[in-house]
Design goal:
With 423 residues, this protein is an all-alpha fold. The chain has helices spanning 2-12, 20-49, 54-82, 84-101, 108-136, 139-170, 173-195, 219-231, 233-249, 255-275, 282-302, 312-342, 349-377, 383-406.
């Protein structure tokens, strides 16, 4: 009986309950098949199928990232004006059209036009998707629903990566064109899926709506955004810095890197829902963020040990360090969802969620170079100040969230929707 109960509990932590939570999770998985397929095969597609140089690809993607950074707040405001579901559907249709146009790219200029347009569209659809999940569900269910979506997302990414492996094995221009057309079809299916989700009542907007950039005057919220964004550096640490450390400072085989990526996927699928409990209030989300920061700091202290160990012991240390970082990612993610679900006002949620993403995008601009310089280029001693930085961030996030929580938000006069749906 005990074993059956354990199995049931494990299943409940992976399979979302029937209803809107499950529908959103299935949508996330389907969409992630296309995203995972492209992320795994994009570098080869750009160079092999489109004939671009690595420098052109890097420049184009950097410009697109800048557009996403500058546009996330005003584009997030579209969600407040037109509604999250409408923006989400239109965004997925535009994504499908842009991916279908990739085979028509004939040089750097047309490549740049497509990737910049995709960055702008994805900035708006990312906000719309999150705002829909928040508005459609009661407060107590929001973080759990986002946890189920993230778990399903990783399943979809894994499936996409497998399909990408087949495309790379075939390695023909026709296969790469078929890849992006398949992705386009996946996004169209996602648009149809989103269109069939329950419609939500229109949130009452203030008589005099604030400008789309007014959220940038909300200093307490921006302080939360900055700290939370810095904590998302766990992604950079896991996907960039950790592999570089393994290659340059340990005797572990290169295959360990692939194994750690698989470990990350499996643990997210199995544990994301379980560790997200308690992050559905602002104080609970702040505590989750703090735990995430302290776990990142602990990772920074454990990982350097792998530089002085040898043989199987090195692999053991790397797995231990990676597990700490994965737990930090799981817990910090729950904290960030809780903050976006509780702090923004209902009528300006799109603009606020867009602003919240600024911190993460700033991290992408700064963290890869800074953390690689500190952790890898110093030979190891740089992990100590890195750990101290994350301790400070983790300790600071709780009082900063409390400051933001007791400070009235801009446009907060509109009532909070409770997930009542329009039939």
């Amino acid at each position: 009986m005990g074993a059956r109960d354990t199995i049931r509990t494990a299943v409940r932590n992976v399979v979302p309950p029937a209803g809107l939570t499950r529908a959103l999770a299935v949508q996330a998985m389907v969409n992630a098949v296309g995203s995972g397929l492209f992320h795994a095969g994009s570098a080869v597609f750009f160079t092999r199928a489109l004939g671009l140089s690595a420098a052109q690809v890097g420049l184009g993607l950097s410009i697109a990232a800048g557009v996403s950074l500058l546009g996330t707040v005003p584009l997030g405001g579209l969600t407040d004006r037109y509604g999250p579901q409408r923006v989400w559907v239109v965004g997925m249709v535009l994504d499908a059209a842009l991916f279908a146009s990739y085979p028509l790219v004939g040089g750097f200029a047309s490549f740049l036009a497509v990737v910049v347009a995709l960055a702008a569209v994805e900035a708006s659809t990312g906000v719309a998707q999150q705002v829909y999940s928040i508005n459609a569900l009661p407060p107590a269910e929001r973080v759990t629903a986002m946890a189920y979506q993230r778990s399903s997302l990783n399943v979809g990414f894994g499936l996409g990566a497998v399909i990408s492996g087949l495309v790379l094995a075939v390695d023909t221009i026709e296969a790469y064109r078929g890849m992006v057309w398949f992705i386009s079809a996946v996004f169209l299916v996602t648009a149809l899926f989103v269109r069939r989700l329950p419609r939500l009542p229109q949130v009452t907007r203030p008589t005099e709506p604030m400008s789309r950039l007014a959220v940038l005057r909300d200093r307490p919220f921006l302080a939360v955004t900055l700290l939370s964004g810095l904590l998302t550096a766990h992604q950079t640490l896991y996907l960039t810095v950790l592999p570089l450390w393994i290659l340059s400072h340990t005797d572990a085989p290169k295959t360990v890197i692939a194994g750690l990526v698989l470990l990350n996927t499996v643990l997210i699928v199995l544990l994301q829902v379980r560790v997200s409990r308690g992050a559905d209030t602002a104080p609970g989300a702040a505590r989750a963020s703090r735990r995430g920061g302290l776990l990142i700091a602990l990772f920074c202290l454990v990982l350097p040990i792998s530089g002085v160990t040898r043989g199987p012991l090195t692999v053991v240390v790397l797995v231990a360090a990676a597990t700490l970082l994965i737990l930090a990612e799981l817990i910090e993610s729950a904290g960030s969802w809780g903050l976006t679900a509780t702090l923004p006002p209902a009528a300006q949620r799109g603009a606020y969620v867009g602003a919240f993403r600024l911190g993460k995008q700033m991290q992408y601009l700064v963290a890869p170079a800074a953390l690689t310089a500190l952790g890898v280029s110093t030979g190891g001693w740089g992990w100590l100040p890195t750990a101290a930085i994350f301790v400070l961030i983790g300790v600071a996030v709780v009082p900063v969230v409390a400051w933001a929580d007791r400070t009235p938000r801009l446009g907060a006069e509109a009532p909070e929707p409770i997930g009542t749906r329009v039939p």
